[in-house]
Design brief:
- By secondary structure, this protein is an all-alpha fold.
- Helices cover 71% and strands 0% of the residues.
- The chain is globular, with a radius of gyration of 20 Å.
Length: 193
């Protein structure tokens, strides 16, 4: 409140830019909600706005439910494991879920995923795939690159590149956790029940 009384114009600027940033999409706000909104935006011109909003929200809630449901299953698999670093993986999985389900997640906020991504690259046993995964994760967004006939796909790929990488890392964590189940890292009493 003190800053408002000292510099009232800064508060007005904050409100103005906060409103604009919530409406921002793509490179500025690559979140799941804005991605779904961009996918369905051609539909908004053809149907009533209320129906469009309902379709958008229902689709977003379905995606959120799938992410949370799959992540909870992975959490319970990990919780029953004897894996030595399971607490770290739980935190990293939570960070990924947090990034994927928030309706507004700015591009600079993806810094949150540096440590979970690095941990996955270091510990996932892929034959030469770790280097490829590392290169994919450090690419900047080449926004104007596309192939003939695939302009729309490349538009969404490059516009939402941080989100695509976040989904890829989340899927790799889920697969990794499910493979832990098949190893000897689980307690016998849990396997028998």
């Amino acid at each position: 409140m003190l800053s408002y009384f000292l510099e009232p114009h800064l508060f007005e600027d904050f409100i103005y830019f906060a409103r604009q940033s919530f409406e921002a999409r793509g490179l500025i706000n690559p979140s799941t909600f804005t991605f779904v909104n961009d996918i369905f935006s051609p539909l908004s011109k053809k149907i009533d706005y209320n129906i469009y909003s309902m379709i958008l929200i229902i689709t977003y809630l379905i995606i959120m439910s799938l992410i949370i449901g799959i992540s909870l299953k992975s959490y319970y698999l990990l919780k029953n494991s004897m894996y030595k670093s399971k607490n770290k993986i739980v935190i990293f999985l939570f960070c990924l879920v947090y990034v994927l389900i928030l309706p507004r997640f700015k591009d600079y906020s993806y810094i949150l995923l540096i440590v979970p991504t690095y941990y996955l690259i270091e510990n996932l046993k892929l034959k030469r795939g770790n280097y490829f995964l590392f290169i994919i994760c450090i690419l900047s967004t080449p926004y104007n690159v596309d192939l003939p006939g695939l302009k729309t796909i490349f538009h969404y790929l490059w516009t939402y590149y941080p989100l695509v990488i976040a989904y890829m890392i989340w899927i790799l964590y889920v697969i990794w956790i499910s493979k832990l189940k098949n190893s000897n890292l689980y307690r016998d009493d849990v396997l028998l029940s």
